[in-house]
Structure formats: structure tokens, C-alpha cells
Task: inverse folding
């Protein structure tokens, strides 16, 4: 197994681009357990512990910028007064040894439902900064572009009906029937601004067309997606409660005309009761139920 140990953020991003299969590791308290138990065998490890930029934190007024590599011990010792919720959560993590190695970034990367840093980060309105050598673009509504732009994140703003091409793949923004916004402020000053919501028609280089409805209710104009774009594959929410459920997703497929459907947004928490099996009762399209992280197709 190759071991890559960059010392600067710029080098780390470059190494990541050269070795896309390398698994990032900071404290290793999740990664090493997986490797020791043979649950994972990555071709290379990308050790981020030497990247100074990730192990720093800074404060600007009410905003604390926390490097992904700051350990729980440091959160407790250095940030107890400014981030009391996170410090309190950090005290509950594992043992002193785990707190000396384990990091907040690693906790987010592991994405465990039991992650102790997640609730205080959510409650504090934390934003995650992402970076790559490619400068991967975010595409969304004009309003979302303004919101992200004010936070230093580059994005391409557009609106429904528009088409944007990136890396030879076409993205057409289409209607969705849902809510979508950004919550700003804290406590009683909290306010949610509408940033819009939308779906995508994605045209791949080989001609495959995918309709990703985004979170949405069933709506009659889905038949325009069929008439205008003829998608072979649809990605539709089926959980119910916050989106349409399996029965309406079956009706949506009648309107869209796709021969395959990948159901999404179900099973994440108990209230999202829709299942792929139920969807199969309401459609003749092939239902491809993917596991998290699963790759499908050629
Ligand atoms: C004995 C034991 C007890 C534990 N107890 C708790 C507990 O009480 N509460 C709790 O929440 N967790 C616990 N954990 C889990 C673990 O300690 C935490 O999730 C910790 O925050 C992981 O941080 P790390 O730096 O060690 O992550 P790593 O193991 O280095 O990485 C974890 C994941 O994040 C990714 N990653 C790491 N850094 C980055 C980065 N900068 N950018 C992108 N991806 C990155 C890795 O690729 C990997 O997928 C425990 C683990 C052990 C072994």
C-alpha cells in the first residue's frame, strides 16, 4: 500500500488528483480500524496530518474557521469558550487516546450516524469548505450563486430552461415542486431565504439521458421532460412525507417514460417510509435500488 504524505494543502490537492483512489486519513481512528479489520484495502493512503493549513483554527468576529485536522483534545483545550457545544461533544468522544488523534474533519468524513461532532455543527449552522485542483463548479440557481459567492465559493448561476455544458456533459435545469433555501442567523433571528429548487436533465457523452427530478412532488409537466428530452433513466425520490412516495413516483414514471428508475431519498430516517419494493408495485420500469457507495452500469 502506497503511503503519500504531503505537507502543504496545494501538494495535498495535487497528490489527490494524481491518486484519485488514495484514501485520505487524518487521525486514522476510523480508517485504521477499517483497514485492520480488512473492511477496506485502499491502494494508497493520503496522510493529511502533515498539512499545516488543516491543523489550524482562526476566529473572525463571530465566525470560527476550524481546520479539518484539529483534534478533539485541541477543541476541548483551545475552543471551549468560543465553541462550547462542540467542546462538550468532543469530551464525550472515545478515550483520551482517541481524542488526541481523532479530528472533526475525520468525523464528518466518516459520516457515521453516531458522529458526536455532527449535532453541534448542525446546530451552529456550520458550513463545510471543499477544495480540489479541478476547481469543481457548483451549478444552481442565480440566487444560490449569489449566496455561495458571498462565501467565497465559485458557482454557476442559471435558471430553469437553461442548459450548461461541463466536461462534455449537458445539464438542463428543469422544474421541481419543492422548497429550497438557506437558513441564516441563529436563535430568534434565524431566517430562511428562498434559493429555489429544481431538477436536472443530464445528457452524457454517449447519448444517455438521465432525468434527476431532485426532491419533488408529482406534477403534470413531467410529461414535458419526456416530450423534450426522452430520458432513459429517471432518478426519483420515493420516501414520502417530504417528497412524493412510491405510488406517485410510479405515476411520474408514466409521465416521464423512462425505462429505468433509481429511487432515492428513502430509508434515511423512519418517517421516509417508501421502499423500492413498493415502487415496483406501481411501475413496469426497471427499479435499480443502489446501496450507498455502490456503482452501477459499465
Ligand atoms: C475506540 C474508538 C472510539 C470512538 N469513539 C467515538 C465517539 O465516541 N464518538 C464519535 O463520534 N466517534 C468515535 N470514534 C470514531 C472516530 O474516532 C471519529 O469519527 C473521529 O472523528 C475520526 O477522525 P480521524 O481524524 O481519526 O478520521 P480518519 O480515520 O483519519 O478518517 C475518517 C474518514 O474521514 C475521511 N477524512 C479524514 N480527513 C479528511 C479530510 N481532511 N478531508 C476529507 N476526508 C477526510 C477519511 O478518508 C475517512 O473516510 C471512535 C473510534 C474508535 C476507534
Result:
Amino acid at each position: 500500500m502506497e503511503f503519500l504524505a504531503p505537507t502543504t494543502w496545494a501538494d495535498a490537492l495535487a497528490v489527490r488528483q494524481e491518486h484519485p483512489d488514495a484514501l485520505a486519513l487524518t487521525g486514522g481512528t476510523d480508517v485504521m480500524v477499517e483497514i485492520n479489520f480488512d473492511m477496506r484495502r485502499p491502494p494508497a493512503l493520503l496522510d493529511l496530518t502533515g498539512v499545516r493549513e488543516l491543523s489550524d483554527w482562526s476566529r473572525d468576529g463571530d465566525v470560527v474557521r476550524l481546520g479539518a485536522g484539529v483534534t478533539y483534545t485541541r477543541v476541548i483545550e483551545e475552543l471551549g469558550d468560543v465553541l462550547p457545544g462542540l467542546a462538550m461533544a468532543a469530551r464525550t468522544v472515545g478515550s483520551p487516546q482517541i481524542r488526541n488523534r481523532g479530528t472533526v474533519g475525520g468525523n464528518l468524513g466518516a459520516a457515521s450516524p453516531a458522529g458526536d461532532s455532527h449535532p453541534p455543527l448542525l446546530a451552529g449552522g456550520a458550513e463545510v469548505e471543499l477544495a480540489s485542483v479541478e476547481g469543481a463548479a457548483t451549478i444552481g440557481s442565480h440566487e444560490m450563486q449569489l449566496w455561495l459567492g458571498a462565501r467565497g465559493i465559485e458557482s454557476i448561476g442559471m435558471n430553469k430552461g437553461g442548459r450548461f455544458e461541463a466536461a462534455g456533459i449537458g445539464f438542463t435545469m428543469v422544474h421541481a415542486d419543492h422548497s429550497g433555501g438557506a437558513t441564516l442567523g441563529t436563535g430568534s433571528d434565524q431566517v430562511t431565504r428562498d434559493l429555489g429548487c429544481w431538477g436536472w436533465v443530464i445528457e452524457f457523452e454517449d447519448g444517455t439521458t438521465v432525468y434527476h427530478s431532485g426532491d419533488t412532488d408529482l406534477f403534470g409537466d413531467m410529461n414535458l421532460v419526456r416530450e423534450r428530452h426522452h430520458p432513459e433513466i429517471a432518478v426519483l425520490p420515493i420516501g414520502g412525507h417530504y417528497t412524493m412516495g412510491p405510488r406517485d413516483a410510479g405515476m411520474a414514471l408514466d409521465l416521464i417514460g423512462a425505462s429505468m428508475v433509481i429511487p432515492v431519498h428513502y430509508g434515511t430516517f423512519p418517517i421516509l417510509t417508501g421502499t423500492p419494493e413498493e415502487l415496483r408495485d406501481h411501475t413496469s420500469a426497471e427499479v435499480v435500488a443502489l446501496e450507498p457507495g455502490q456503482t452501477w452500469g459499465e
Summary: The chain has two domains: 2-123, 142-287. DSSP finds eleven helices and 16 strands in the chain. The pocket of flavin-adenine dinucleotide is lined by residues 23-31, 33, 48, 54, 68, 92-94, 98, 101-103, 105-107, 109-110, 114-116 (CB under 6 Å). Residues 246-256 form the longest helix (11 residues).
